Amino acid sequence: MNTGELLSIMTARVATLEKMPTGIPTITQQDVLGAMGMINHPCASLLLRVKYAHQFDFMDDLEHCIMIYIEKLWRDNHWPRYRGSMLKLCEFLLWEHIWPRRCVSCGGIGEKTVETGKVYQCGSCKGTGVRKIHDKDRASVLEIPYTTFRRKWSPIYQELLASMDRIEAIGRGALRKRLEVEC
């Protein structure tokens, strides 16, 4: 079973596997939560909870944990000083990792409301709510000129995105390993 499917067991909106009449060993919500508690990486468990189980109550804790992780990564790599809001950087980094194809302009809704209250179809995603995130979007959100972002910050941002993938892989691998032992 995929670890993403296992993590979905933690949501109240899905049927429990233990009630399904199959030959698959039953893994309960308690099994998944117990295995998550044994993940050693400080951010991995929170990231899996938010991304797969949609437990957004943990988002503030995740942002704080990721911010500490990023600051350490920043120091270790001797990257140039970032003058913007580290919290904004962290929030957008998580947003892009959790919802990688969600339109930045409309937030994935597919429409925009202007100040007059009139609703228009989002021009960026053409009303679908889905669009690839580009460096122009990143530069705009982080309030950095596009040319500066491309030249100086894009490689750093890509490394930060890759570190989010590594954190998720650590969590998923540890969860898979813990639940294989129990099955």
Task: Give a written overview of the molecule.
- With 183 residues, the protein is mainly alpha-helical.
- It has a two-stranded antiparallel ribbon with strand order 1-2.
- The protein has one domain (3-182).
- It has helices at residues 3-8, 29-37, 44-53, 59-77, 86-98, 135-141, 146-182, and strands at residues 111-113, 119-121.
- Residues 14-19 have low confidence and may be disordered.
> How many β-strands, per DSSP?
2
Order of helices and strands: HHHHHEEHH
Write out the strand line-up for the largest beta sheet, numbering strands in chain order: 1-2
Percent of residues in helices: 55-70%
User: Structural class of the secondary structure composition?
Assistant: mainly alpha
Summarize the structure.
The chain is built from seven helices and two strands; from the N terminus they run αααααββαα. With 183 residues, it is mainly alpha-helical.
Comma- or semicolon-separated keywords:
single chain, about 180 residues, mainly alpha, two-stranded antiparallel ribbon, 7 helices, about 5% strand, globular
SSE layout and pairings?
Layout: H1 3-8, H2 29-37, H3 44-53, H4 59-77, H5 86-98, E1 111-113, E2 119-121, H6 135-141, H7 146-182
Antiparallel strand pairs: 1-2
Helix pairs in contact: 2-7, 3-7, 4-5, 5-7, 6-7
